[in-house]
Amino acid sequence: MRTKAAVEAELSWPQVHAFRLRGHDLVAAPRRSVAQVAADIGGAQAQVMSAAELQLAVRSGRPVTDVRDALWKDRKLVKTWLMRGTLHLVRAEDLPIYTAAMSGRWMEWRGSWLKYFGVSAAELNRLVATISGTLNSEPMTREEIIAVAGKGQSVKVRQYLKSGWGGFLKPVARAGGLCFGPNRGQSVTFVRPSEWLGAWRELEPEAALAEIARRYLRAFGPATKQDFATWWGRWPGVANAAWSGLEGELTNVSTEGVVAQVLTTDLERFPGGAEGAVHLLPAFDPYLMGYVNRDHLFDKIHRSKVSRTAGWISPVVLVDGVVAGTWTHAASGKTLRVEIQPFARLVPRVRSAAGERADSIAKSLGLAKAELRVA
Known about the structure:
- The chain is built from 16 helices and 14 strands.
- It is of the alpha+beta class.
- It has a five-stranded mixed sheet with strand order 10-11-12-13-14. The chain has a three-stranded mixed sheet with strand order 1-8-9. Strands 2-4-3 form a three-stranded antiparallel sheet.
- It is globular and about 65 Å long.
- The relative contact order is 0.15.
């Protein structure tokens, strides 16, 4: 693929941060539905459900109960495994785009998997089809799925079907054959998206992948195809295919010496800077998830405070698009107690704005007020 070889624009990091804040619905704007926010940011990462609810709530200004209603009552959101093999909440009408982009050659079985389970690719493909065919609009527990799809399978395969990490359910989800249904007591359930959501469309995989990359750049740009591969999940060849699908739509820009691409149509949308923007972002927030490294967001000395062990991404204090500290919260009666661990002294305007953000989060959680403490 040929992008423009020459750098067409010089940008500053404040300009880039301001563009990304806007793309992630983190600037003042008309109230959006939680489903629209999920569409704008490329999904809310949801292996910790309370974090995903807050990711959408802090951007929409709506209560977390709106997220739950959108999932289980209105079915405007859907929960499933997507990018990086991780649970996400995405807008329901967008799910066919994601699953089409993840189908075909981007979902080939790794040889290590086949060797580990002692089965062929054809056998695993049949298992995926069987699981998908077992589901309909009626929620089924994992045990109920195994009772049907596990027949004739080896003990090893049946055990992995029970895995809480997804196991064989992940590829079914990414192929569009499975998403989460409402819990049945303490049990997780699954449904077939095309029947649960009431509408479905089949899309050409290459065109769907290009559309996902286009949406990614609107929120995360400027970015390189390596950044996109990190966000997607480092599947071999996917970044080259995505950027090839955008041929003629990309422009090279330099941000203080770092060359990356933006959509040419977005080039005039870069504001002057992000001055005055203060946010308390929840754990695993998408704003932090889209790049090979995050050195432009915080000093390396603070990396272990943000990117913790086992892939845990801390809740962060964002000031003008840059991480200025981490924070924790706990409910005490009707009060949300928020504590900030800043990387440096916070000036009065930032402390004041952080207090307002804490109050907003308390409201989203159905609490009366917030109390802010800066460590």
